[in-house]
Amino acid sequence: MPVLVLNASLQPLSVIPERRLVVLLSKQKVAFVDEKVRSLIEESIAARRLEQERPVIVQLLANVRVPRVILHPTRSNILLRDDETCQYCGKRSRELTIDHVIPRSRGGQGTWENLVASCKACNGKKGNRLLKEVNMHLLRQPRPLTQEYAGFFLLRYPKLREAYEEFLLSAQGSMSA
Fold it and tell me: What average pLDDT does the chain have?
């Protein structure tokens, strides 16, 4: 059960495991944003068994300053950016490789703009050649991930992202009422 931690200003900070949640609760550092979830979690803690299917969102009681984080083009970040889809043929798979659009042997760098997710067949077909030499093309032009860090890690947890968006809409509705 991943737990979304919000800053006091409601900015997403991180996703933590349930064990960390128990520590933050015992130190009285966080508050639940949903009373139903709070009661379910408290019952689970009393039973010493945390098995919660609903997304859990907690808010820090004190605001934390968050430094800007620069995202690097790592394998997991490239796969996340490309939605685990081969950028040559469109095949979706968890077993993709990372390909240099301009091969390293031809001066290509390990940058956001030069790295793409590729299935093994397309990567083997392309080899160390340029796209035009093998008559291949990219489905999307590779770009750096431009989202802030908070939005970036929410991409990995679609249920948490949905719960956070619902929470923001309900908070916005209660503020305007």
Answer: 83
